[in-house]
Amino acid sequence: MTETETETETDTETETGATMQQIWIPKIGEPKVLELREAPDPEPQAGEVRVRVEASGINFADILARMGLYPDAPKLPAVVGYEVAGIIDGVGEGVEGFRDGDRVVSMTRFGGYSEVVCAPSAAVRRIPENLSFEGAASIPVNYLTAWLMLVRLGHVRRGEKVLVHACAGGVGLAAVQICRHFGAEVIGTASAGKHDRLREMGVAECIDYRTQDFEEVVAQLTDDRGVDIVLDAVGGESFAKSYRCLDSLGRLFVFGVSSLAPGSKRKLGAALMGLWRMPKFKPLSLMTFNRGVFGVNLGHLWNKGAEMTVMLEEILDLFADGTFQPVVDKAFSFNDAAAAHQYIQDRKNFGKVVLVP
């Protein structure tokens, strides 16, 4: 056997036995329960590509899953994570249009907190050259969610007023950029320390949700007419107040329940109270006031993959030409995943928080 043959055999053995790291939720608990574990590198199946992950997005659904408050989460122990960006290093049978070395972003149906993931090629798209991996990982969940609400379902248009709760979060800042692109005016709720930056990004009016009643402020700002669209991921009583903020032909979008997780520890009493406070929207009331209420859950749209891909391509094009800019607040290493979850739960982030292997 030649020296070259020996080296080739050794390389093959190394690749076959390659391992990666993943962040696991072993049980319900505080951020400190997150564990870093090793697992074999997955092999791409037919129709899949393998992505060597450079950045993974964190979403509030991941935090709710860790707290046992997210019904769609896989059974624990589990690896969560809905989106990744990285480099393709394996292509399954039947895949066309991708090759090793391509810089890509992908949706993942959990499993995104991993150094290596395999994803259907239909869910994968190339990253524009002007985007970093961290910036790309901040896009799929946040921008698709905001796009679904504002563009696909809400038909936002120039001159409309849009109330965006948690305006400094990932979806909130995506909504700000989409509204600015379409000429709509944003009223945003956020803690006072984030107001200056929000105004710099084009938010017309800021409301401090900790010290102000947003329903009263919206009434003052609109001369009691209300707004055209509300985006609310707070839940509980907030849904009812947001509904009352709507003008005729107004649209309320509910897409989260962050109020069910007010701290690091699971508080079933607070969660149950939040559920109890959620309103029941009655058809006659909707007709009387000419209002609409929409529920959005991106995780339940895997059967609409082709439609999601078209929207993601439209969004990526707007990043490619500079219309949109990713807002990544902070990147944490896999070793610091617990600190990343705590950072988000403490409401410290302005924009997206990502994990970097």
Given as residue ranges, the uncertain stretches (5+ residues, pLDDT < 50) are: 1-15
| Computed CA radius of gyration, to the nearest angstrom | 22 Å
Average pLDDT number: 92
Ends: how far apart?
Answer: 38 Å
Report the portion of residues in β strands.
Answer: 15-25%
Overall, the morphology is globular
List the helices and strands in order: HEEEHEEEEHHEHEHEHEHEHHEHEHE
Structure explained in plain terms:
The protein has 357 residues and is of the alpha/beta class. Helices cover 33% and strands 25% of the residues. The chain is built from twelve helices and 15 strands. The protein has helices at residues 3-16, 60-66, 133-137, 140-153, 170-182, 195-200, 214-221, 237-244, 268-277, 283-289, 305-320, 337-345; strands at residues 19-24, 35-40, 48-57, 83-91, 103-107, 116-120, 124-126, 161-164, 185-190, 205-208, 227-232, 246-254, 292-295, 328-333, 352-356. The strands form three sheets. Strands 3, 4, 5, 6, 7, 14 and 15 form a seven-stranded mixed sheet that branches. The chain has a six-stranded parallel sheet with strand order 10-9-8-11-12-13, sandwiched between helices. Strands 1-2 form a two-stranded antiparallel ribbon. Helix 12 links the parallel strand 14 and strand 15. Helix 4 (140-153) crosses helix 5 (170-182) and helix 4 (140-153) packs across helix 11. The longest helix is centred in the last third of the chain and has 16 residues, at 305-320. It starts with a helix and ends with a strand.
